[in-house]
């Protein structure tokens, strides 16, 4: 059997083993608690959890801004295209007016010539027929030579 001293030493030894084991467990726990990487991850998870809603709202807001920019760009392109079309139409219209201005003297000359020709030939043409002779206010009569003529009698 064992003596009291041996039992005491055995108990002391068991206690020392128990205390050293607990100290090791505590040291490992302290090591885990003071590990900067682990604390960084915990802080990151906490910050991410708290900021997730804000980040989602910011993401939605940035998507809205992007859609607004795209809509504005499309409107700008449409406006630029319409402006270019308007300028082209104005230029075409201006060129047509310039062509018309070049033709205006010739058209005016033609109108004067036509008016002169009609002034000279229209009464003669109208006097060639009995119905138009009456429109002129003259009388259709037969001359002594037997030729029909439109005659204007003076008062």
Please describe the structure with a list of short key phrases separated by commas or semicolons.
two-stranded antiparallel sheet, 155 residues, 2 strands, rod-shaped, mainly alpha, 3 helices, 83% helix
Characterize the structure shown.
The protein is mostly helical. It contains 3 helices and 2 strands; from the N terminus they run H-H-H-E-E. A two-stranded antiparallel sheet has the order 1-2. Strand 1 and strand 2 (148-151) form a beta hairpin. The chain is rod-shaped. The N and C termini lie far apart (183 Å). 1% of the residues are buried.
Quick structural summary:
The protein is mainly alpha-helical and 155 residues long.
Topology of helices and strands:
Elements: H1 4-33, H2 36-126, H3 130-136, E1 139-142, E2 148-151
Antiparallel strand pairs: 1-2
- End-to-end separation in angstroms reads 183 Å
Radius of gyration: 59 Å
Shape from CA axes?
rod-shaped
The secondary structure category is mainly alpha
The major β-sheet equals: 2 strands, antiparallel
Kindly report the spatial arrangement of strands forming the biggest sheet.
1-2
- Helix fraction by DSSP (H/I, runs of at least 4): over 70%
Order of helices and strands: HHHEE
Averaged pLDDT, please?
Answer: 86
What is the count of β-strands? 2
Count of separate DSSP helical elements? 3
Beta-strand proportion: 5-15%
Q: Catalogue the unreliable spans.
A: none
